[in-house]
Design brief:
single chain, 268 residues, alpha/beta, Ubiquitin-like (UB roll), Rossmann fold, 7-stranded mixed sheet, 8 helices, 33% helix, tRNA threonylcarbamoyladenosine dehydratase
Length: 268
Amino acid sequence: MRILFNEKELFLQEDESAFMIKEKYKPDGDLVIYNGFPTQKDVNLKDGDRVTVIKRGEVPSKDELESLMIARHTPGVFEAMKKAIVGIAGVGGLGSNIAISLARVGVGKLILVDFDVVEPSNLNRQQYFVEHIGMYKVDALKELISKINPFIEIETHKVFLNEENIEEIFKETSVVVEAFDKAENKAILANTILIKCPEKFFVAGSGMAGYFSSNLIKSRRVSRRFFLCGDEENEAKIGNGLMAPRVGIVANHMANTVVRILCNELEP
């Protein structure tokens, strides 16, 4: 009988149960998950079953975590994520949410660039906590990502991006994500990547302010290497601020666009 135990193949006798293999292979485990559902009662196993045993608070090894992620993503998707290097310019409302989503899908290396620190007003939409106030955003985000997946490589830069350093900082990347507030900074990054880095894809956001309908937000291909996400209309201004729900929706449109690029889902 073949089963998967913590996503690794095992061949067992026909009369073995979930709790029996727990005691054999992970006796200190606290929780048994049988075919995706926690169980407190022993279950007789059959061919093709999946059993996961978890010890609360234990950090899985790199191999264990990757095996579990492969089971969720399918092997081809996970491998595409693992070998990818993605740059994120700005790690505020958009960038911090994008980085967290890409970390959760297992992107192998993230290059995070931002010279700003966490302020109390950032907590309304950015992936930071009270204890991060005063920290550089890239440092706080690196700390958060390490709690999600400690095996992702994080490179941080506390610099202001300009025409002189963009190419060097993002030289390893296949995709660069724009998550700036100011239009002039967006334009400089876009022009540098799209003109001087012909091998890179560029994903940007535009139009995410307020609490307008979520259905106005879309992902659009502007050119072969340039993708734009948002409603392309509702900018932040007095009386129309940035809030977590719509910023998060746009951020995950952008993260999903990155995943689709990395998986070669988009026509050349």
